[in-house]
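Appendix B, record 7
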Amino acid sequence: MSRIVRAFPVLNESEFREFVQEVNGARSGDAADFYQRHGVTRETVHWQQTPTGPWIIVVTEVADVEEAASQYAASEKPYDRWFKGQIHRLTGINPDLEPLGPPTEQIFEWSRP
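Structure tokens (predicted):
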């Protein structure tokens, strides 16, 4: 199992929160299918208010990162198109071109000995 961590700027806070409510509410069945099809076992989204505006930090656990990213980028299923369109509109990041979001580089890690 791999863990992917990425951060996205939020262009419109209220619209982003509406998007999350829709994913958790009216589209929750589609969301569950979406995550299962792409091999995601867990995903959390964290809100961070910064001096330059809000960001979300997304942590995803998935069996095969490269396979999931490739499938996600290529998917034309209606829910996937809607989801990717919302991400692009609300963050400025195009999931068809950057399915893993903006590149992330781990620069520090600490573990208990």
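Remarks on this record: Residues 78-91 form the longest helix (14 residues). The chain has one domain: 2-91.
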